[in-house]
Write a structure and sequence with these properties.
- There is one protein chain.
- The chain has 8 helices and 5 strands.
- It has 210 residues and is an alpha/beta fold.
- Strands 3-2-1-4-5 form a 5-stranded mixed β-sheet, sandwiched between helices.
- The chain is globular, with a radius of gyration of 18 Å.
């Protein structure tokens, strides 16, 4: 099976149509039971694009961190979050879009390539939704790396505040360790109460049996 390698064609097309500052945007953290959702916007500078950019999920942690360090030096990077409270009040899709809009707003950008099949509400610049964009666009791949490295480190930090849930390894995703800890230790302030496994634990004691 041939591996799809992201390229710079969509960025070049946008520049050819008059855009001056093209950014790629991606998010990470829709599936976890705890922690914020994190988005990154990245503007790559032609001529100084790090080699080996790819969908963050296909890279080792060491490779992601190395590329993240290069991107922070060689590109324009903005990272933003939507909080657990915003996830619970808006829903995870709208919250992830909110984080994307925040990340874009912090950069000088006039065109955005957005991973996914929907454009976030609230965008103030033209944009293109790119399905599986982190496998197709170098800018989106760069954003996926920056978002994942940042969020993973954030969850390592939260794991020190709330030990026992394994967030340093599972990043808040519903692994067996995390689910068992929820049962044993209970729900923390950074758990997403609108997510079913957390909601069920919070409200199981309130169910009145005949």
């Amino acid at each position: 099976m041939t591996r799809i390698v992201p390229d710079f064609s969509r960025e070049i097309a946008a520049l050819a149509q008059g855009a001056a500052f093209v950014v790629g945007v991606d998010e990470v953290g829709r599936g976890p039971l705890a922690g914020p959702v994190t988005a990154a916007a990245v503007r790559l500078i032609p001529g100084q694009i790090p080699q080996g950019l790819a969908d963050s999920k296909t890279l080792s942690a060491a490779r992601r961190e190395a590329l993240f360090a290069q991107l922070m030096e060689m590109a324009e990077v903005s990272i933003a979050h939507a909080s657990v409270e915003e996830i619970d009040s808006l829903n995870i899709l709208r919250a992830s879009h909110l984080a994307m809009v925040r990340a874009i707003a912090a950069l000088k950008a006039d065109y955005a390539l957005i991973d996914g099949n929907l454009l976030p509400k609230g965008l103030t610049i033209p944009a293109l939704a790119v399905v599986k964009g982190d496998t197709k666009s170098l800018s989106i791949a760069a954003a996926s790396i920056c978002a994942k490295v940042t969020r993973d480190q954030l969850m390592v930090d939260l794991a020190q505040q709330f030990p026992g849930y394994g967030w340093e390894a599972n990043a808040g995703y519903p692994t067996k360790t995390h689910l068992q800890a929820l049962l044993n230790l209970g729900v923390t302030p950074v758990h997403r109460r609108s997510f079913k496994p957390v909601h069920n634990i919070l409200y199981q004691d309130k169910i009145v049996t005949p």
